[in-house]
Amino acid sequence: MSPHTRRMVVKNGGWPTWGSDNVIFFHRKDDPIIHPPGQKFPKDVFWGVYRVEISTCIVKRVTPLNIDGFTPVAIDPNRVVVVTVREESQGLGAARVVDQFRQIEIFDSRNGNSTKITQNTKSSKADHFNPFLIDGGKLIGYHRGRSDKLSFDQAVERPFQTLDSSLPDVGLFRVSGVFPTISKDGKRLAFVDNEFKAVWVADSNGLHIAYEEDGPDRLFSPVWNQRDDTLYVCVGPSFNMKMKVNINAITNVSKYRRQCYALTDQYNNAFPSSSPDGKKLVYRSTGKDGFKNLYIMEDSKRGVVNGREPRRLTKGKWTDTHCQWSPNGDWIVFSSTRDKPAGAPESDQGLDPGYFAVYLVKWDNPDVLVRVMTSGSDISGHVNHPCFSPDGRSIVVTADLAGVSVDPISLPLFEHSVRSYGDIFSIDLPEDHLVRYQDGNYQYGKHIRDVKKFTRITHSKYEYSTATWTKFATQDPNRAWSMRLPAGDFTPACPYKQRDGGESYHMTGHLLLPKRCC
């Protein structure tokens, strides 16, 4: 359609569905409501389903003011199928009554009457998602999922899954957790369980817990030291930059003489990465000014505690995060919002608004900065969690470069997933990362060297979590943990039970590796 022939019908609307040539139903998250006299609702903001007539642009709310309604599918100009949540629950994992689950209902916009569908089935105590019509509207289909938690050890102690890869020379598989990391020699794999409560290690001794958190804190983003038997892990509240998060070192991981101690003692610190010689760490921290920037820990054993200070690498009123040291030690790759356009919103429905791009910076000279990948300077995209290939010639990212075709409200809720970031992509770096002077010295300053070509590795409407890369192939005898790859069919490990035919959901970490030994 030509831009000259289109016009705005509704501002702030999503998930449109045609009721007729003149009627569209849609959903949106409302502004805080004004409580009617004598009534007090349990919260101030609700999702609602609306009906708009295109010819007049008259908008009418279809679902009641005091319930959540979303992801509509129209039956005809007056009736629409909606997912509802009629009562607010106490949060993920809490016991719920029927009206606190996601249910399927039919609403009539003429009189406001509703017909409850899934509340009257045997699986009423389950969440129901994204209704659709079958046979010209005679039947309603939907997805269903249970959310009864299993213990984390039952969820993790399962085989890993081999996936098809779109890269001819690179294999792909996933583990039953998040934030996978492989030691430089390829012999040890570590990751965090879906509850963010334990660091698991798979090696020649099998699958075992290297560190467990019994208190309220969470664990995330483990990474191996590139020279010795040490793991670094972030300890603290997840996704809360106002709270203190420490980076801890777990030593002698494979020798079972483990000791754990903090390398930081103030601010919110996360996403450490070891230098190739293992002596330094790069990480992101809120620091004294409260903005997430990158810092260098000059001594990875002593840390920055008891008054020791790191060296600041980047500085600005933006977010620099998800950093990793390059294999040759020259570069640090990271994602940043430093190019977020003026006037961009501070948040998107209370969530991170995005505008992330990927940059390279010289570890010893912050003046040398190159942007290598972005989802667009004028859109609120995410290009996050960059990770170098072992040869340093490619980067894998979790990004929405192929678009995210659904609203986050339509997806299963996880305690540790902020929003749907998209899929895993790989990009090949150009040989000349920097513009140089003729005499060979680096030309300082930020340069735009955006890579336009990328390869999509996964296909999903939900975040595929972080990826990592190793040069050791599946058949390599040093990789004893690869024995956990199944020979036949695979049922994904998940902290949520599958009952009543319900489909369960989980987060997984992905690993890229050569299909053949190097």
TrEMBL record:
Entry superkingdom: Eukaryota
Pfam family, one: PD40
Every Dipeptidylpeptidase IV N-terminal domain range: 268-398
GO biological process: one example: proteolysis
Lineage: Eukaryota, Viridiplantae, Streptophyta, Embryophyta, Tracheophyta
InterPro entries on file: 6-blade_b-propeller_TolB-like, Peptidase_S9B_N, WD40
Name of the protein in question: Dipeptidylpeptidase IV N-terminal domain-containing protein
